[in-house]
TrEMBL record:
Residues 1-23 form the signal peptide. The keyword Signal applies. Transmembrane segments: none annotated. This is DUF302 domain-containing protein.
Length: 172
């Protein structure tokens, strides 16, 4: 009977853990949040979906740095790589009241890029690999700067993570 309980418990635990892994596609590594998407997904579509998620959180896209265009033009490197500069002014105003050093953390930069199977920067024709979306966790950045006032920073971190979760859920 004891072995039967164990045999039944193990598959149930695996199902629960597996469901959690599917539900939470955002990974945290080295002080940043990441989402990894299939290389079959169109880069431009993922970029548009990311804009949608940013706007859904009432954030503003301040500008987009086309790293890929610059490298292609000046060095002949054909990759897909962009950085979105985003901000939510309300949070910035609150955070600066908490600690003016927060200014060093703005705007939030969300990177989207394609890598090949070996993790190297890649263009649209790359075999294997994935599309990566990443953003630095502002709580980690606050740690590095010794910023202890974190109420607003925690809200910002949650919303940035939520943006990435929205993209991940859309494609899975």
């Amino acid at each position: 009977m004891k072995h039967l309980k164990t045999l039944l418990l193990v598959p149930m635990l695996l199902l629960v853990w597996g469901a959690q892994a599917v539900a939470s596609e955002v990974q945290t590594r080295g002080g940043a949040f990441y989402v990894y998407l299939s290389p079959a997904v169109e880069f431009s579509e993922v970029l548009e979906r990311l804009y949608t998620e940013i706007e859904a959180q009432s954030w503003e896209v301040l500008r987009v740095q086309d790293i890929d265009d610059g490298l292609r033009e000046h060095y002949g490197i054909d990759i897909e790589n962009k950085v979105i500069y985003a901000c939510r002014s309300k949070y910035l105003a609150e955070a600066i009241k908490e600690n003016p050093n927060v200014t060093l953390l703005v705007p939030c930069r969300i990177a989207i890029y394609r890598v090949d199977y070996a993790g190297r920067a890649a263009g649209p024709g790359a075999e294997g690999g994935k599309i990566v979306i990443g953003v630095t966790n502002p709580i980690h950045e606050a740690d590095l700067l010794g910023i202890e006032e974190r109420e607003t920073i925690k809200v910002v971190a949650d919303e940035l993570r939520s943006m990435l979760e929205g993209v991940a859920e859309f494609y899975h």
